[in-house]
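Regression test case RT-17, inverse folding.

Input:
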């Protein structure tokens, strides 16, 4: 198993297909939430993922400042069903924050989180900056991390 981080242009067509397939499986099918999953932001992103034998087990999309927010952001955070509760999500966030800090030198980091994950993201230092709101019928909050290095 290996962790990879690639820009859109560095992804092979197979890697891109695997990423889009697992994102659709988790965010559209599992969560029963029909929405435009392929939203045009992937071309600006770095794609962080854990892969084993060509299968994407965990994934996050790292967006530079100016794409979703004024700050850089981490989104589409997922661990594939059957691979959850193995620490992959925490490792994914640690690696994503390290990439943003080390490669882009950017602070703070802003995310849109599903409300039920407030404590998980809070464990990395993210603080809620909005009240809970519905996005595609799912409760969300916006959160910010002022100092990704702490």
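Golden output:
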């Amino acid at each position: 198993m290996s962790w990879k981080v690639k820009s859109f242009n560095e992804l092979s067509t197979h890697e891109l297909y695997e990423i889009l397939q697992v994102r659709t499986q988790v965010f559209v099918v599992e969560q029963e939430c029909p929405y435009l999953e392929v939203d045009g932001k992937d071309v600006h992103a770095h794609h962080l993922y854990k892969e084993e034998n060509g299968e994407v087990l965990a994934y996050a999309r790292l967006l530079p400042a100016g794409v979703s927010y004024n700050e850089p952001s981490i989104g589409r955070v997922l661990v594939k069903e059957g691979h959850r509760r193995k620490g992959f999500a925490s490792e994914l966030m640690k690696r994503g924050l390290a990439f943003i800090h080390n490669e882009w030198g950017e602070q703070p980091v802003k995310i849109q989180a599903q409300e039920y994950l407030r404590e998980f993201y809070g464990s990395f230092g993210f603080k809620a900056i909005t009240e809970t709101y519905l996005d595609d019928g799912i409760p969300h909050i916006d959160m910010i991390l002022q100092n990704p290095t702490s």
